[in-house]
Amino acid sequence: MRTLSRRQFLRTSGTGLGLGLLTAGGLAGCATTVGPKTGRRVVVIGGGWGGATAAKYVRLADPSIEVVLLEPNRQFVSCPFSNLVLSGVRSIESITMDYSGLRGHGVKILHQEATAIEPDKKRVRVGDDAIEYDRLIVSPGVDFQWEQVEGLPAAKDTVLHAWKAGPQTVALARQLQSMPDGGVVVMSVPLMAYRCPPGPYERACQIAWYLKTSKPRSKLLVLDANKNIVSKTGLFQAAFKNYPNNLEYRPASRVEKIDTSRREVTTEIGDKVKYDVINLIPPQRAGAIAVQADLVGADKRWCEVNHVTYESVKQKNIHVIGDATIGLPVPKSGTMANSMGKICASAVVHLLNGKEPPQMPPVNVCYSWVSDKEAMAVINSYRIAQGKVVMIEQKLTPGASVAFAQNAEGWARSIWSDILG
Predict the structure, then answer these.
(1) Which tens digits make up the pLDDT trace of 333-381?
(2) Scanning 3, 31, 35, 373, which has its CA 20 to 30 A from the CA of 205?
(3) What is the CATH superfamily name and number for domain 20-143+285-360?
(4) CATH level 2 (architecture), domain 146-282
(5) Distances from the Cα of 378 to the Cαs of 4, 11, 119, 310, 343, in angstroms?
């Protein structure tokens, strides 16, 4: 692992800077009716960073292939940058977009939930109907393992995780704003692996920055189940020092129990911690549809895939991308999901046309905001070796700066346009 200069980083990251920001629109376009399959059809489950990208790029690669995207939400809300909503640096509207661009590429979008996958019949159940496919791309994101924290299943509707950007992000921001100065915010971090972003350590910096500037007598207590900061370790350790009076970090402090009546959590070492505001981030696994379809491995959490095509190792003709995957040496990041979506789309089109899929390694760039104006980043480079993704190098920015925050803004505009434009 090595650091790199700002000039080297800007060149290596390859971020496009001139693309317009996609803004939130109305509920453009109604659900499209999908008739009987008359030609080759790809169904995509999940319209997040991976699924929306895959749907678009299948159409770009071969417009003769019908693409049906199943996404219950009518708007796309970006998990990257959502921590800035908690600190008041951004609004939720600034990270909310619609799916009209995908429709412009001929993607048929059903704002409905896939209720079951029937691999033997090559179809997806949507309510009482079924949609047949030739290839299925599943980008289910994550669901939560509520049962791993005593007391959480009964309180999951009121104890906020804000780990899926949207209403809970806004609700948690309001709780922070309403807390009296001098209050205590407790945030838990689950054991790896988990979706990132929203990144827990970036979130800690954003909440601490908000407290420092708006409620200086308040404190954020971070209870991390991991033994140390697991992402950009040195950089975040340095960033945390900017908030000596407002941020306390406790490693190896997995939350085992919550008592909402006492406003208290208990850690694995028996510490009882009082809170005024709680942000409990539960342990995670692949989305429920992946579990239902038996795409998860022996751990019952994550999906193993072919590293070149992203086809499930358990179910033929079904590809899994994004946060739900495991076995690749990659983070569960937005950039990675976008990269997987493109690679998977290329593989699916090649397979449907009777051709050998190319061996394309993913790429990754992760930005983290440590204040209202400064960010830092990491780049991961990969190659394919003997059919497996292998990391070649990891590069870190030398620290946080305004310049890297500006680059993060450009990256966001570029990748949002790439996904949805």
Answers:
(1) 999 999 999 999 999 999 999 999 999 999 999 999 999 999 999 999 9
(2) 3
(3) FAD/NAD(P)-binding domain (3.50.50.60)
(4) 3-Layer(bba) Sandwich (3.50)
(5) 10, 13, 38, 24, 21
